[in-house]
Specification:
With 191 residues, the chain is an alpha+beta fold. The chain contains five helices and four strands; from the N terminus they run H-H-H-E-H-E-E-H-E. A four-stranded antiparallel sheet has the order 1-4-3-2, with helices on both faces. A hairpin with a 2-residue loop joins strand 2 and strand 3. It binds heme C. Heme C binds next to helix 2, helix 3, strand 3, helix 5 and strand 4.
């Protein structure tokens, strides 16, 4: 919150820089689409990393107290990090906000998580090649214009790597710590 409000205060100073960098300004002249997407992503990434490191990796891999499982109810296990992410995104979607988000990959365990739109496919390729560089592009879907931002989803913990490499449905078995395993897609409707 603090970071966000100080960002807003800095905006008049940052705006010329952002515009020089080709950033699109929001229609109301306030925060840019890119800054909105970056701020949302910062929170998502922090929550996702904390859950994986402090809960899943600690309890499953280090202390061997409880496992994480897709069938967490039947198995009395922890939900997977990707399930936690999706439950959050579904709860947000119920509130009909002005944005949506999802976790996709070029090498999905669940085929539903493959990129579908041309922009998603292009962005997933781009962040896999350069994980430090987010991908931003406008796209038109169903006659509506969106600002789509895609961020690398990295293997922030050994738990990410060992589970995906060992999963029978995984099309890739050579992920390494720190690498991009997929991408977070944030979509903002444009005015
Ligand atoms: C215990 C196993 C396990 C762990 C730990 C795990 N994942 Fe996954 N991950 C899965 C499974 C299973 C899915 C598919 C879930 C679904 O959508 O049904 C998935 C989904 C994903 C997806 C969406 C594409 C796909 O493969 O379907 C990405 C990206 C991803 N995980 C990255 C990560 C990262 C990064 C970490 C660590 C922060 C991580 N995963 C930790 C098992 C795991």
């Amino acid at each position: 919150m603090d970071k966000f409000s100080s960002l807003i205060k800095l905006l008049p100073a940052l705006l010329p820089l952002a515009m020089a960098a080709g950033t699109v300004r929001a229609a109301d002249g306030g925060i840019t689409y890119q800054e909105m997407a970056d701020g949302l992503h910062m929170v998502m990434e922090a929550d996702r990393t904390v859950y994986t490191r402090m809960v899943v990796n600690r309890l499953q891999n280090e202390e061997k107290v409880i496992k994480a499982s897709e069938h967490f109810k039947d198995d009395k296990a922890l939900p997977l990090p990707a399930q936690m992410f999706r439950f959050g995104s579904e709860m947000v979607a119920e509130k009909k906000p002005a944005f949506s988000y999802s976790l996709l990959s070029l090498w999905p365990i669940n085929k539903q998580n493959a990129g579908k739109t041309p922009v998603e496919k292009e962005g997933l390729q781009a962040v896999a090649a350069k994980p430090d560089q987010p991908f931003y592009k406008e796209e038109t879907l169903g006659g509506k214009k969106y600002y789509t931002a895609i961020y690398a989803d990295r293997a922030v913990s050994q738990a990410c790597v060992s589970c995906h490499n060992g999963h029978k449905e995984s099309p890739r078995t050579d992920f390494k710590l720190g690498e991009a395993m997929g991408g977070v897609v944030i979509r903002l409707p444009m005015k």
